[in-house]
Amino acid sequence: MGMLIFIIILILAWQGFYWIGVDLLELWKPYAVPEPAGVAKRFVELCSDGTLFEATFNSLMRGVAGYVIAVIIGIATGLLINRFKYLQKNLKPVVLGIQTLPSVCWVPFSILWFGLSTNAILFVVIMGSAFSISISVDNAIKNIQPIYTKAALTMGASRRQMYLNVIFPASLPELVSGLKQGWSFAWRALMAGEVMTTSIGLGQTLIMGRDLADINQVMLVMVVIVAVGIIIDKCIFSVIEKRILKKRGLA
Amino acid sequence: MSLVIKGLNKHFENSGKATLNEIDLEIESGEFVCIVGASGCGKSTLLNLVAGLEKPTGGKIMLDGVEVNGPGADRTVMFQEHGLFPWLNVIENVKFGMKLAGVPKEEQEKKAMHYLEMVHLQDYKDYPIHQVSGGMRQRTALARALTMDSKVLLMDEPFSALDKQTSNRLREELQRIWMETKKTILFITHSVEEAVYLGDRVVALSPDTGRIASIITIDIPRPRHVYSPEFVELRHKIMEQVRGEAV
Fold first, then answer.
1. Averaged pLDDT of chain A
2. How far is B51 from B47, CA to CA, in rounded Å?
């Protein structure tokens, strides 16, 4: 509730700045500064012709597809890095290094290899989030309290049983935070990928706004990107996280 | 003859940790043996070696004629810090080892309830671990260990993280449970009183040499009582001995 009031105040202040800075004092050009009323108007227009829904839906589908592949690759490489000392010592630093690359750096490669296609976007999404997931998987397993694995060993756990019955559940809380972070990387990478192509999506709608010198549309898309990110985070990842922690008496 | 420890040595390189020297010990089936010693004397190392969680530098450990090589369900450990899984409730924790062993579900349930009743936790079987007290957690861990039907049960100071009252209560119950089940138990403790109270034999380890200082047979009939004159006398005698060896 307090949050809502804060946001309303923020929007009112923004509208006030616009009136003073653009309308009254003419300090800034109207095409360079978005206006809440203008953004709202654009929102209604883009909603009524279905553009916004289509763009959001397409982006989400691409984001989810890329993310799912990234999760599979991330978990597989994370497990391998964790399991083999050689990879831990040699591959992990490389993965850590690659992970620091902003996802937009993968755009040139993806265009060369896949052209201006959906696959090119997926490639950027995967590269943008898979490595952070593999690092989280490795760390989550490393942070398991040794007593859990010790206890299971003295109860005769095989390697397979150890992974299924101890390592997976024990690392789950940290694993979910890692997956959540992976999603936020994927979502950001998706926008980096989408602005370069012409297939309908939020990123492309944003660039279209720029090309049409429609700053309100640019702003609107930015708000939608943030909103989708927050909704996924709060409605999916945070809910799962809370449930796991509550069950274990940690929250 | 059940567990045989022969000429066991353990040295740690670049570490101030205790070393074990030429440990010889035989534990009969159905016997309750307590290892006692000051902290840092290597008693937990000895238990880890028997459990197979650590490898000896020399000597060997034989269980029913087979050399111990790595951990296994025939040597379940009950730890000082319960080692229960927080994502499972009380009865699921008790069933864990049986589940690994592929025991049929009905039998898991029956056996889990049997041992939960033995440790008086039947009414708490569906409680999450974080909602039961420290004493109840150790009872759960004890029930879990008992379901394993291990050849030898290893207990690593299982009551020393609990408050004095709870700890005393649990050792009384362990005495009763041992009298009922006659499991073979190797019990590590720093408390001479606890060792004399529970053990058929008390093995005192010397922290200086890493050797067995003395092995004392406790022939006080069970159930024992810590205030009985013979108990007090024996406890006193062993305390003197252990202290004497330490100096």
1. 93
2. 6
A240 interfacial to chain B (CB closer than 8 Å) = no
Give helix A51-83 / helix A36-48 axis angle, nearest 10°: 90
DSSP B173-203: HHHHHHHHH---EEEEES-HHHHHHH-SEEE
CA dist B16 and B45 (Å) reads: 13
Write down the ipTM of this complex. Answer: 0.90
**Shortest Cα distance from A172 to chain B (angstroms)?**
10
pLDDT tens-digit map of A119-173: 999 999 999 999 999 999 999 999 999 999 999 999 999 999 999 999 999 999 9
Cα–Cα distance measured from residue B101 to residue A160, given in angstroms and rounded to the nearest whole number: 13
In chain B, the percentage of residues whose pLDDT exceeds 70 is: 96
Contacting residues of A for B131, CB less than 8 Å apart:
249
Residues A82/A88, Cβ–Cβ less than 8 Å:
yes
B48-80: pLDDT as tens digits: 999 999 999 989 999 998 999 999 999 999 999
Q: Which residues face B26 on adjacent strands?
A: B4
Tokens 């209604």 label which residue? A44
A249:B129 CB<8 A: yes
Going edge to edge, which strands form the sheet with B212-217? B77-78, B153-156, B185-189, B32-36, B201-205, B212-217
- Are A154 and B128 in contact (CB < 8 Å)? no
Record: contact A147-B53, CB cut-off 8 A: no
Task: Say yes or no to pLDDT of B163 above 70.
Answer: yes
The model's pTM: 0.86
State the Cα–Cα distance between residues A106 and A122, nearest whole angstrom.
11
